[in-house]
Specification:
Elements: H1 7-25, E1 29-37, E2 40-48, E3 51-60, H2 68-71, H3 74-89, E4 97-105, E5 110-113
């Protein structure tokens, strides 16, 4: 019998789907979803024109936990950068890149921080 996922995982997946739909509506194209390697995981890899965008999606059920940007600590940034470096090593040409953070709140509001770090 398949066990249901915990609520926080379902909320995170829903936030990621919401972020993906929103980024697509902004003209970006999905390249990869949940890219995993030993260094870490990248929620979304998107193409924005010629740029490759590594997107960290954060769900906040309420503001008491701080903003999405505040939740991406320097240690998390380093893991994302190492995972992005791993991803880029597979490419024959490295395009311009950036790191964005998408915050999704309980009311499905989007907070998009471009070039977050």
């Amino acid at each position: 019998m398949k066990q249901e996922k915990p609520r926080h995982l379902r909320s995170g997946e829903a936030a990621e789907a919401r972020a993906l739909a929103w980024l697509r509506s902004q003209g970006m194209a999905l390249v990869a979803r949940n890219y995993r390697c030993k260094a870490g995981e990248i929620d979304l890899v998107m193409r924005d024109g010629e740029s490759l965008v590594f997107v960290e999606v954060r769900y906040r059920s309420h503001r008491g936990f701080g903003s999405a940007a505040e939740s991406v600590t320097p240690a998390k940034q380093r893991r994302l950068q190492r995972a992005a470096s791993h991803y880029l090593q597979r490419l024959s040409r490295v395009p311009p890149c950036r790191f964005d953070i998408i915050g999704v709140d309980a009311d499905n509001r989007i907070d998009w921080i471009r070039n977050a770090f």
